[in-house]
Specification:
Elements (H helix, E strand, L loop, with lengths): L1 H14 L3 H6 L2 E6 L7 H14 L3 E6 L10 H6 L5 E4 L1 H7 L15 H9 L4 H11 L1 E16 L18 E4 L3 H9 L3 E4 L5 H7 L4 E4 L1 H6 L8 E17 H6 L2 H28 L1 H6 L3 E3 L3 H12 L3 H4 L5 H7 L3
Parallel strand pairs: 1-2, 1-3, 5-6, 5-7, 8-9
Antiparallel strand pairs: 3-8, 4-7, 4-8
Helix pairs in contact: 3-12
Bound molecules: 3-deoxy-alpha-D-manno-oct-2-ulopyranosonic acid.
């Protein structure tokens, strides 16, 4: 690639114009996400990441699962068909089960805790394995937010105070084992469904509810087809900016630094935006006729943690990592 750039440079120098040849030689960074264009993580990559890498790369995003279906992005990166994605720990856990520790209910405490965990040496073996065995570099951690239980039923029909109240509730969860386990741990009957089908699933009653942070409830207009949100905060959810290791290796050292900085800057920008939305959307959602209330959080935390303790999921966690994550908490 560098040889090609050199040849292009000397050709344009002869021609006396540098710009067009450099532009022609730009790389393309394709990005796939199930999220919408207005999702703050998408906006962060478009508004912050893309301009920072624009000297050498064209950023080409595909939203709403149109480029690759939700859950297939990491494999696409690994096979060389995609440059980057907004990846979940649950998706990483499909390749490396130990990543389920970052997808476990009531482990991360808040956005700052996520950042401390991601930057701590405890993450190094996780990152290394993803790079070596999947060809995926995890550049930075993005904040999605506190996931809550959002149901079609009115509170008169289902009052969610403890996990027992979710018995028989057909709760849509994203489609991987780690998500389904979390749905069961909450006391519900989880149903896998792709993100872009959730609105219709709720509208038709194919599912009773879904779980996502408040900004997602607004972004996808789930408030139009649901009646209540129990603020379970069962998962302080994160995503990784996942980047092709093969493309990374084609970059010059300076470009690598720029890509890393751009990813960190986008993650920081998106985190602030998402936190701001998360803290300010409850009134709007209420005004749309959705009741929002706090259940017995201690009952949820205790029940969920008990489901993981001694489970097959927890058996995949490397010795001592949960304690190290907890030690980085408040
Ligand atoms: C979802 O499918 O509910 C979820 O919130 C799961 C997340 O891991 C993340 O992939 C997200 O969807 C998409 O980015 C769309 O917001």
């Amino acid at each position: 690639r560098r040889a090609a750039l050199g040849a292009a440079l000397s050709a344009t120098m002869l021609a006396g114009s540098l710009g067009p040849a450099l532009a022609a030689d730009k790389m393309t960074f394709t990005m796939a996400t199930a999220g919408s264009e207005t999702d703050q993580r998408s906006a962060a990559l478009a508004n912050v990441f893309a301009p920072m890498v624009a000297d050498f790369a064209d950023y080409q995003p595909g939203y709403n699962g149109t480029l690759f279906a939700q859950g297939t992005e990491l494999e696409a990166i690994s096979r060389g068909n995609l440059t980057m994605s907004i990846a979940s720990a649950q998706e990483m856990a499909q390749f490396f089960p130990e990543f389920s520790i970052f997808a476990t209910g009531y482990v991360h405490q808040d956005a700052a805790h996520q950042v401390r965990v991601f930057n701590d040496p405890l993450m190094d073996p996780f990152k290394q394995k993803a790079e070596d065995e999947l060809g995926v570099k995890l550049l930075s951690v993005m904040y999605l937010g506190r996931r809550h239980v959002n149901l079609r039923q009115t509170r008169e029909e289902v009052d969610v105070q403890t996990p027992a109240d979710l018995a028989g509730v057909n709760l849509r969860m994203p489609g991987t084992d780690a998500w389904q386990f979390l749905g069961s741990a909450l006391g519900a009957s989880p149903t896998p469904m792709a993100f872009n089908e959730v609105y219709t699933g709720l509208a038709t009653g194919a599912v009773d509810g879904q779980d996502n942070p408040l900004p997602t409830v607004v972004d996808k207009k789930f408030y139009e087809v649901t009646k209540q949100i129990a603020l379970t905060s069962h998962l302080v959810d994160l995503n990784y900016i996942a980047f092709s290791k093969a493309v990374w290796d084609e970059l010059t050292p300076d470009q690598q630094i720029t890509v890393q900085r751009a990813a960190d800057a986008a993650a920081a920008w998106g985190r602030l935006k998402q936190l701001d939305l998360e803290n300010n959307l409850a009134d709007f959602i209420r005004s749309q006729g959705v009741e929002i209330y706090t259940p017995d959080l201690e009952a949820f935390r205790t029940h969920v943690q008990a489901q993981y303790a001694g489970s097959e999921v927890a058996a995949s966690w490397p010795e001592g990592v949960l304690e190290r994550i907890n030690a980085l908490g408040n």
